[in-house]
Design goal:
Layout (H helix, E strand, L loop, with lengths): L1 E2 L2 E4 L2 E4 L7 E4 L2 E5 L1 H6 L48 E4 L4 E7 L2 E2 L4 H13 L12 E7 L2 E7 L7 E2 H16 L10 H14 L3 H14 L7
Parallel strand pairs: 8-11
Antiparallel strand pairs: 1-2, 2-3, 3-4, 4-5, 5-6, 7-9, 9-10
Amino acid sequence: MRLAHANVRGGVLCLGDPGGLHVRLRPDGVHTPGWKATEDGVGDEDDQDYEDEGDGDDDWDDPDDPGSSEDPDAPDDPDAQQPALASPWVVTAWRDLAAVEVDAPLTRWRYPGVLSTVVAAVVGTVGIEWYPEGAAFDVEVTTAGGVEVVRCDGFAGRGYWEPHARVVEALLRVLVSEPSTRGWLSTPGDLLAVLSTLARRGPSADALADEVRSALLHAAPEASR
């Protein structure tokens, strides 16, 4: 299920195309791409990370291991290569967040991706190869230490339908300010269904955050029932 730039992949709520650079929203915090994800890309080979993060084998020798090639009597070398401890994902706990905001192109067209696909099919009939580009966008993660801007890969189309994009933005404000609503991130499909219903009601921009907050606080996610 997808709502504007928010979608579910492997039971995780993502902002952006899960096959490329994106941000993950989990109950423990906001997961942003680290150095490895930025350099190597985040694709299908990273799918297992949705289920069990941080279980990769460290590529280094244990001097206490009989099968190790490390010399236990060798002097310590501060410049020697250290174990790769960095994670491809950087986790910022919700309690440390001041704001999470999305800066994405918007459109009044209800199904922007469908229009792009139709255009690609039409030009393809005359022998022109053209593929619709994704509408990339920025996710701004603000903490006491500053603002991190993550450029996320988007979905086909020139933008995202405004009612859906606005309700996702309202969700982010509520998740930062209301700890009790974060349990919904354990059932992201149910969460997007609630947001979709609110978007169809068409509350004003000023009332949208209050509508989202009220809906999430007064209805428990499926997993906790």
